[in-house]
Amino acid sequence: MSTRITKIFTFILLSLYTSAAWAQKPLDSYVADALKNNTGVREQQFQLEKALQALHEAKTLFLPSVTMLGSYTKAAGGRTIDIPIGDLLNPVYGTLNQLTNTHNFPTLENASVLLNPDNFYDVKFRTSMPLINAEVYYNKNVKKLAISLQQASANVYKRALVKDVKVAYYQYYQAEQAVAIYKEAEKLIDKNITVNESLLRNGVRTSTALTRAQTEKQKINAQITQSENTAKNAQAYFNFLLNKPFSSEIVFDSTYSPAGEMAMDLSSGDNSVSGREELQQLRLKQSMFDVNKKLQQSFIIPKLNTFVDLGSQGFNWKVNDKSAYYLFGINLEWNLFAWGQHNYKVKQAQLDINTTQLQYEGTERAFRLQLTQAMNDYNSAVSNYNSAKAQKRLAAKYYADQFKAYKEGQLLYIELIDAQNQLTIADLQLSVAFANVQIAKAETERNLTTYPLN
Known about the structure:
Helices cover 66% and strands 12% of the residues. It is an alpha+beta fold. Strands 1-4-5-6 form a four-stranded antiparallel beta sheet, with no helix packed on it. Helix 2 (25-37) packs across helix 5. It is elongated, with a radius of gyration of 43 Å.
């Protein structure tokens, strides 16, 4: 049974969004422009590029690094080492001079050597590379996950932008429709004024009806002005999302009608939120905390590095075959005891994992609720649209009948005004209902993550 429901649900969604695809080409083009030019999207791309560069940086930590090091010291005073050369050799030299009857063996002074090297230089190139280092390995894994996390963040922003563009698009449509409806109402008022002027000239009516018609025209003019201002604001906001000049023209596909919209099946909607990028973000965060836990557990693994120094050192800036040298070495660091410090860090990492899991479960339930509400709102919007169409048809027929009766003198003008207001309200309600269908669809599409971002 569940398989059958899933197939029906999938068919409905495919039908819904396939039918919208051919009918909303201008809107799809605007969405593509927004995904390309919106400043927020571009900022997200910069952050993604930054994450990629961080991964490249992490990979270089496995490779050898070459560093030039140099030092020069000039010293005077300080500690010394006393070497009693004179005391040791002068008696021997004196005996030798007596035996040889010469002065070939001089008298030596005791030496005192400074511990601090004076006029001494040391210049070398050090090549070092890690052999065993768990931190480097896990750091690379964290950077990989950070890229996926940033991509998910970018997609979250893009999906919100797609919805905002579609909502703004139909809000602009609604505002423009309001202007057009009020202008049509103005034409009806002008027609009424013409009829009342004719009836007044023929003595059939008094000037009261004409005055009332002129008053209604002033009201309509004020509503037109207000609606035009609303449309300009909606146009500016829509173009703001696309990063275009605020007064850029907006093309609307008037061929599309939601008359064929189908109600959505709510029975399998709870299983359709797994594609939300917000949930993917939480899964990635949990993976990052898991890597951090493994890092803390790896404290028992020793760190082993190797290095080679190639350089020259000596006094008085002498450079020769004796000053050149090389030095090879291996460094070992093994943390054997730290009063349980790493165990506490492991426990903290596990608590981070548990917290993220609870966040995931709570967020998933919230998204399921949002999806259910969005689908209910969509079904309600479709029903309201169909009802508004019927009301518009009846209001148009009612006004035509009332206007005919008024011309024949069988109706009070206030009754004609009421019929006209009902027609205007029906037109406005129909445009609002149309926009609400599209807005509800955009909201449902956002919750289902069905719009292709690439």
